[in-house]
């Protein structure tokens, strides 16, 4: 299950999962852009994989739960992984940052991450009780902004929301990392995150157009450049796969060295 699946990063991660042998339940907000969806459908067909789409606003807990339940019930295999890529980023001076944008950012990036985790965990637990699942791996897309204050742009609320995702991941990993000592009534769910650096996507196009900001990001990255969405495929596939079977509660920084100075 991939949220934000038709965005600049989400579509690349969807492609990576298909190419790695997985079916994908794509979840995103609103209508699917044909220019993004049709190539993904063609790829899935060529690989004999299943790719389905469900619209959902993850800031609604009840809607997210119902969409995940429906999507999982229609899938041909049990849910083995989740990638929560849905998120929004709004730049603005903190002293005048609007209440509605503050709430929307926190509702999607932080509360939405919890709602997605809850919905997916309920699906995996149900399938576990039915003897169809042994557990799952959840991967959340956080941000390097959860560690640092961005020098180039004012992103206080966005940064706070992504720092919250880091802590949410650690807490969920602790809760879901093992069954109770006296009961095996729950599956093991590994929970990790990745923290991207600045990515060149349609969502960041207007921000990257400001050379005074972009030049700072390039300078702050040890690799001296802006990243592209395909550079996150390996990190996410690793965390979803059995290759990372002893990894949980961890954040993998994929930021070109921006936070390593």
UniProtKB/TrEMBL annotation:
<dbReference type="InterPro" id="IPR003560">
    <property type="entry name" value="DHB_DH"/>
</dbReference>
<dbReference type="InterPro" id="IPR020904">
    <property type="entry name" value="Sc_DH/Rdtase_CS"/>
</dbReference>
<dbReference type="GO" id="GO:0016616">
    <property type="term" value="F:oxidoreductase activity, acting on the CH-OH group of donors, NAD or NADP as acceptor"/>
</dbReference>
<comment type="similarity">
    <text>Belongs to the short-chain dehydrogenases/reductases (SDR) family.</text>
</comment>
<dbReference type="GO" id="GO:0019290">
    <property type="term" value="P:siderophore biosynthetic process"/>
</dbReference>
<keyword id="KW-0560">Oxidoreductase</keyword>
<dbReference type="Pfam" id="PF13561">
    <property type="entry name" value="adh_short_C2"/>
</dbReference>
<protein>
    <submittedName>
        <fullName>Short-chain dehydrogenase</fullName>
    </submittedName>
</protein>
<dbReference type="InterPro" id="IPR036291">
    <property type="entry name" value="NAD(P)-bd_dom_sf"/>
</dbReference>
<dbReference type="InterPro" id="IPR002347">
    <property type="entry name" value="SDR_fam"/>
</dbReference>
<keyword id="KW-0521">NADP</keyword>
<dbReference type="GO" id="GO:0008667">
    <property type="term" value="F:2,3-dihydro-2,3-dihydroxybenzoate dehydrogenase activity"/>
</dbReference>
<dbReference type="GO" id="GO:0050664">
    <property type="term" value="F:oxidoreductase activity, acting on NAD(P)H, oxygen as acceptor"/>
</dbReference>
